[in-house]
Each structure stands twice: as structure tokens, then as C-alpha cells.
Task: structure prediction
Amino acid sequence: MSNSTSKNTKAAALALVQALIAGTLKHFPNGSFTLGNTTYTTASLVALLQSLANTMIALNVAQLGAKDALATQQGTKATVGPVVEAYQRFVQAAFSNATTTLADFGLAPPKVRTPLTAAQLAARAAKAAATREARGTTSKKKKLAITGNVTGVTVTPITAPTATPPVAQPVSTASSAPVPGTATK
Result:
């Protein structure tokens, strides 16, 4: 069923099977074939090839239907999804302590946050202080107190002589043709 000159696509495979059917009916209308230890007549071989073509067509139709159904579901989910999430939050807020009622909605009760122990709080504070010192971060007031000192640098101002403004030049006309209405000597 593979053809090295054409692309291996579903459409090409279907076209090949249909061409085999047409060629068999045209050139071997009453033939008998032995293929792989099985004898086929033209009618039985065409029926076998036609069953393959029919299943290929049915698969294409089913795949297109699945694509359409998936696109429809994604569109519906985009519009209904936020409503479902909001309703879930509402139900969880309304029945936060009633686990059996939440189970009726298919929801689990919210997890209770376990408080940190004194040792864990002290470790968290020590880690935050160490991170702050390692990064060199300080408060706003401490940043204002930090100033930089520059030594050994001499700043010499550049003084350039002021340029005189350009003198206005009269605009001359470069036309050599006499202007009409004027006399020339």
C-alpha cells in the first residue's frame, strides 16, 4: 500500500486503494489471482479492497467529528469554567465544616493549615536575617545614610570660548534672466 513517489498521507493511501479497485475492474474484469496462498476472484479482491477503503473513509469521518466535538467542548469549557470554579468556592465556603455535604458535591474540605512551632518560627527568622545580610539589603533609612566617598579624582570643568553668532547675509537671487516689468541698462 506504500508508494515511494507520493507522500504517506491518509488521502494518498485512500486514493491508492481506490485506484487499485478501478485498475482491477478495468484490466482484470474476470480474473483469478493467487496472493499469499489464497485465491481471489476479481469480485472478491475488489470487495476486500473496497472494505479497506470504506474503513478509511469511516475513520476520517470519525476523526473530523472528534475534532468538531473537541472544539465545541473547549468553547463551552471556556465560558462555563469560571462559573464552575466560582460555584465550587461558594459551596466550599457555605459548607466548610460539613464534610459529608461537601462529599455530596464531590468536593473535599479545605485543608487546615498547621501552625509553625516556636523552633520553626525562630529558624525562619534566622534564615531571613542571613539572606538579608548576604544580599546586602537594608531598610530605606539605612540606604539614605550610605554615601559614597570619592578620593583622588580631580574634576576640571571644561570652559570653551563662546562662539559669536553668525552674521546675517543678504539673500541674493541667482537668476540671470531679467524680471518682467523692470528696465535694464
In short: The two ends are 103 Å apart (CA to CA). Strands lie at 32-35, 38-41. The chain has a mean pLDDT of 83. The longest strand covers residues 32-35.
